[in-house]
Design brief:
337 residues, 8-stranded mixed β-sheet, 11 helices, globular
Length: 337
């Protein structure tokens, strides 16, 4: 990670205000005349701070890799952004992303690539489902990392096990409702997730949420970010996540190069979910990363940066035939660490 050590030199921070009064804090790094813009969307309980290594790598030119402009923002109710007054659902986060995208890329030339982790990837899906015209016309490429199409937090079951799936869905909704009804329970879960990693009750909760992959500093960083979010806000967002469903509504993503990445050990948005997501997007590329869990973008930042560059290279191939309906194999990324 030594190559990512120094901070980007250009920084512009602004606030994007939504219709319901939420103030979304947005950071822009890099030159306005950069050849492309990359918008980074973080996940549940995290913040834009997690993208710092990726921003540093993307905004600094290297041989064969021109610098790009990056836009990162704190999702409403996370980091520096306020909650707003609207009823929280995933479509709302898609609208927030659309507003951030419009206000930060208006008047700029060059393609825009969207990168979303977990809840951030779901926000991108919601934008594609509700505003398909923004894709290809404005958004030229997409990376969806450790995220899913629907059924958040559950591995898909076989068709003949539909009743078991319905029970699992009902169970997740009951947990979400219970957290919202019981501030004491929400605070208890919050304490467990933000407590010492050595505590015997903490590790099982993290494994239940994120799988076996997260470890060490990655989990500590997540816990620090989570401490800044009120317990009931955490519960409210979890309830919103359990209602996410974009199945059959992602045709717009088939118009642009789209890559789906997942850690093989991800227990929250598992590989089976990533496969269903890739199958729902015409031409999407699926990559499963061995030995990684839900924190894939933060444990493997070079892989994310290389994915962005791969998308940008694909945009420079006008001689290729139109995108088809079958997934293409991922480009080798042997240098990713």
């Amino acid at each position: 990670m030594s190559a990512f050590a120094s901070a980007p030199q250009r920084l512009l921070t602004r606030t994007v205000t939504t219709d319901d009064g939420a103030e979304i804090v947005v950071d822009t790094h890099g030159a306005p005349d950069a050849r492309a813009t990359v918008v980074l969307c973080h996940g549940w309980t995290l913040s834009a701070r997690g993208w710092r290594p990726h921003i540093d790598a993307l905004t600094r030119p290297r041989p064969g890799f021109p610098a790009v402009r990056t836009v990162s923002y704190d999702q409403r109710g996370h980091g520096r952004s306020t909650r707003g007054t609207a009823l929280l659902d995933m479509a709302l986060l898609g609208r927030d992303l659309g507003r951030v995208l419009t206000e930060t890329t208006a008047g700029l030339d060059g393609p825009v690539v969207l990168v979303g982790h977990s809840m951030g990837g779901m926000a991108i899906q919601q934008l594609a489902a509700h505003r398909p015209g923004m894709f290809e016309a404005r958004v030229a490429g997409v990376a969806l990392i450790s995220t899913c199409l629907d059924q958040v937090g559950a591995a898909p079951v076989a068709p003949h096990e539909g009743q078991a799936q319905r029970r699992a869905d009902a169970g997740r909704r009951a947990v979400a409702a219970g957290l919202l009804r019981s501030p004491g329970w929400a605070r208890t879960v919050h304490r467990l997730l933000t407590g010492p990693l050595s505590h015997p009750s903490t590790a099982p909760v993290w494994r239940a949420l994120f799988g076996a992959g997260p470890r060490g500093e990655g989990v500590r960083t997540d816990a620090r970010a989570l401490r800044d979010i009120p317990p009931l806000t955490v519960a409210e967002f979890y309830a919103a996540l359990t209602t996410h469903d974009c199945a059959g509504r992602l045709g717009a993503l088939g118009r642009v190069p789209t890559r789906v990445l997942v850690g093989a050990l991800d227990g929250y948005t598992p590989p089976q979910q990533a496969a269903r997501l890739a199958d729902d997007i015409p031409g999407a590329v699926l990559q499963t990363v061995p030995h990684q869990g839900h924190d894939l973008p933060y444990e493997r930042p070079v892989l994310v940066v290389e994915t962005v560059h791969a998308l940008l290279r694909e945009l420079r191939r006008p001689e290729e035939p139109p995108r088809g309906s079958r997934p293409r194999p991922a480009e080798p990324m042997a240098t990713a660490r």
